[in-house]
């Protein structure tokens, strides 16, 4: 077990077919206790319950909080202080995407997307940092859109928010290095979740798959495995970087 006895917080992790939940499940399978943060209490409770069925009665808790809500996050951190005592891993995963062209993006769209995807990461990191043990790990979910621009993969505001996630990750790595806290990101390509399951018609899908050397879209588990690597000591000397998980769809 790679992270046995560790504690982890994952934002946006209640959707049963999402990247956050798949990562939380992988963490529990590897011996961690997890806190599932997401918007709705009933979703968090359901997700935590299904993880307790895998990892035992202490394996998971759920807490409803919006990553835009700094006060709510502070309350969750206080709750975690009493239940977990310390925090080893933070996964900043909560995100929203709008597939829009530049001329269609309103100021409200821009702010809504940046508030969740980028400021949400900042808020959650600031709230959880006081709980984090020296030697802990932060993993943030960016996107291939940060590397290639939006288009089919999300609008320009989505791409900009994820570019911000990559820049903030580097700042965290620099500032937190002296505490041996590592900060890394992942750049998923097209991962089939509720975010995009119905986003592409059959012809578009076929064209996209044809452009992926591994010949398929990704699964949430593909991302979860890399998050596990970045959260565990397997990546003890890796910080300030991002791992692409895209089947070869984009290469540097
Ligand atoms: P998803 O929609 O299944 O999961 C997103 C989760 O975030 C949901 O559970 C949602 O309730 C939660 N969330 C949204 N706004 C929130 C807020 N304000 N506060 C707290 N929680 C909030 O989608 P997913 O595909 O699993 O996405 C997870 C992450 O992966 C996102 O950051 C997304 O941008 C990123 N990503 C996804 C893909 C893909 O192809 N699916 C590709 C690249 C990056």
Automatic annotation (TrEMBL):
Task: Kindly state which keywords UniProt assigns to this record, in alphabetical order.
Answer: Oxidoreductase
Which class of enzymes does this protein belong to? oxidoreductase
Q: Which domain of life is it from?
A: Bacteria
Q: Which GO terms describe its molecular function?
A: 3-oxoacyl-[acyl-carrier-protein] reductase (NADPH) activity
Q: What are its E.C. numbers?
A: 1.1.1.100
Is the Transport keyword given for this protein?
A: no
User: Can you cite a GO biological process for this protein?
Assistant: fatty acid elongation
Record-linked InterPro entries: NAD(P)-bd_dom_sf, Sc_DH/Rdtase_CS, SDR_fam
- Keyword check for Transport, yes or no: no
Tell me the leader sequence span. none
The similarity comment for this entry is: Belongs to the short-chain dehydrogenases/reductases (SDR) family.
NCBIfam families, per the entry: PRK07231.1
| PANTHER family in alphabetical order | BLL7886 PROTEIN, SHORT-CHAIN DEHYDROGENASES/REDUCTASES FAMILY MEMBER
The entry's protein name is: 3-oxoacyl-[acyl-carrier-protein] reductase FabG
